[in-house]
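User:
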Amino acid sequence: MTARIINGTKIAKQIREELKAEIAELKEKYNLIPGLATILVGDDPASHIYVGQKQKTSLALGIYSERHDLPAETSEEELLALIDQLNKDKNIHGILVQLPVPSHISEARVIYAINPRKDVDGLHPMNVGKLTIGEPDFLPSTPYGIQQLLIRSGINIEGAEVVIIGRSNLVGKPIANILLQNKEGANAIVTVCHTRVRDIAAHTRRADILIVAAGTPKAITADMVKEGVVVIDVGTNQIGTTKSGKAILCGDVDFDSVKEKAAAITPVPGGVGPMTIAMLMMNTVKAAKLSARLI
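Assistant: Predicted structure:
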């Protein structure tokens, strides 16, 4: 068996096309233009790339975009003041602070400062709580993207044994909460594995759907999965460079060996990554509609 490739780039493009039509309709019918503000503190090269991609996608879809790049020495008070200003700005429906922030700034205080109705990353405790009880305004972008990859690829989630590797607040915990809800596109039996699990392979071999966000290159190998598993690889790890200086990337799954046993698998790159930005745009559109009481 050679796995079907779950093409996140293609699915994200479909979602962007749907959003572009919806945004045009909002502008025409209601004179409503969704607005997204991104904040970047410091000079981390990867963060600059991520923020640039988000801004580029926003503009391509017709979303009003503001980018606030702040020096690394920006104080916590200055950052919180900017967030407060954006909270009050009626043209801004979504606020995204690119994480991580410099060590002298409290990440928790930054997240708490964002108006939950503009928290399109879904990280505010109010949005985390609403997700837990099954009444979310916004699903965190990467977990939301994982769910959409499964749904749009025709993968049956209901009743499936889902094993998640990693318990982070960004991926592991929220995707577990999303998939165990009593809702369409969920109703899974969910196991979350982490660094204290004694025998991870004993769990991964049971999985019908395996979601890996371990942060370790090629941590999941073919002997750790069963025939016919669906594998979602969230990891992106640089393991070298080409002669021309281009980064060589791999996921948390040993793709070459696991694809010979899996029914379907996401590649790295081109799997989960493109979905994250698409779902952020979807959340921004939803935030705009909530603010206008259209939903």
